[in-house]
Predict the 3D structure of the following.
Amino acid sequence: MRTAILAQTVLAVLFLPAGAFFAWAAEGEAKPFALFFSLVWTVGCGFLFFRGRNALKELRKETFALDFSLEGEDSSSSRLRELEELRRDHLISEEEYGKKRAEIMEEKW
């Protein structure tokens, strides 16, 4: 996940000059469309850059929101595997992993 966010941020920076190039290269009747397109392109690249930068900061702080629910799973082993995968991808902290693992193990036994 961290790699995907980093790639998004880098690509946003690399594509940003393309917006200026579109506006500069347009001639004649295409100039107003090119200016509008350039503006939209630049805003989009800026949005992707700042979104990626903020996501990377959150991952470093380990404050990334947990958007998963392990309730309703059939087997404890599949829940434990999913939990281990979240820990391996650094989406949850060691403390969160330990708490949730203990809950699952208590339910199983």
About this structure: The chain has two domains: 2-61, 76-108. Residues 76-108 form one domain.
